[in-house]
Amino acid sequence: MKKLLLGGALAALMVLSAAPAQASITLSQGHVDAADINWVSNAFSVKLSDQTVSPAVDRDPADVILSVPAGAIVTVPNDSRFSFLGTPGAQVWILPQSQKAGLLWLGWNTLGVPSGVLQGNNLQLKLTAVTGPDDFAVYTTGAFGAPTVIFDSGNGLPDSKTVNVNTHAHANWAFEAAGTYTVTFEVTGVRTDGSAVSSGPIAYTFVVSA
């Protein structure tokens, strides 16, 4: 009997250890820096800065689901400058550049990268891959409403943005259909000694609801 109990316990332990890891938290509103870029041991360390709680918590992006609710739905304007969002009049889900109640306010920062460790005191934030039901874009809007596209999976990847150290920025994050998206970024740069440095791929999961 003891042998049977022990065997059963070992089998249960093996099943538990073989179970796939699950995302531990879903974030649906508030301030989040999706790419919280730091410099640790002469290399990039990228976390998700969850500022929906106080004090803020640094999380592994792989442990987080970012929720985009139906409240994010807007209509694509009849303006050729916004053609990257789809057909005029179509629905698009946008997490806005300015904070809005009930939605995530997503940004990125390089506040943890000190001056003098990278050539030019800047790095490249790259969108390398998107899987999902439709296109994904990140863009900003100026004082007069004109969009500046930063990343757009609809016209080919990778896309890259130069980001200076000591930067904190927000943008509009757009999804053209409901469903689950995996959005993969990479942070690259050149150390002052001329050697290249990369974070490797960093995948984010977005669940967009109709």
Portion in beta strands: over 45%
What is the 3D form? globular
Unreliable segments (pLDDT under 50, ≥5 consecutive)?
1-20
How many helical stretches? 1
> How many strands?
17
Distance between the termini: 54 Å
Rg calc: 20 Å
Biggest sheet features? 7 strands, mixed
Proportion of helical residues: under 10%
Q: Quote the average pLDDT.
A: 92
Structural class: mainly beta
Number of domains: 1
Instruction: Summarize the helix and strand pattern as letters.
Output: HEEEEEEEEEEEEEEEEE
Topology:
Blueprint: H1 2-18, E1 25-27, E2 30-40, E3 43-50, E4 57-59, E5 64-68, E6 73-75, E7 91-95, E8 104-112, E9 122-131, E10 136-141, E11 147-152, E12 159-164, E13 168-170, E14 172-175, E15 179-190, E16 196-198, E17 202-208
Parallel strand pairs: 1-5, 2-8, 5-17
Antiparallel strand pairs: 2-3, 3-4, 6-7, 7-14, 8-13, 9-12, 9-15, 10-11, 10-14, 15-16, 15-17
Describe the structure concisely for a colleague.
The protein has one domain (24-208).
Describe this protein's structure.
The longest helix has 17 residues, at 2-18. The protein starts with a helix and ends with a strand. Strands 1, 5, 9, 12, 15, 16 and 17 form a seven-stranded mixed sheet that branches. A five-stranded mixed sheet has the order 4-3-2-8-13, with no helix packed on it. The model is unreliable at 1-20 (pLDDT under 50). It has one domain. It is mainly β. The relative contact order is 0.20. The chain is globular, with a radius of gyration of 20 Å. A hairpin with a 2-residue loop joins strand 2 (30-40) and strand 3. 8% of the residues lie in helices and 50% in strands. It is built from one helix and 17 strands.
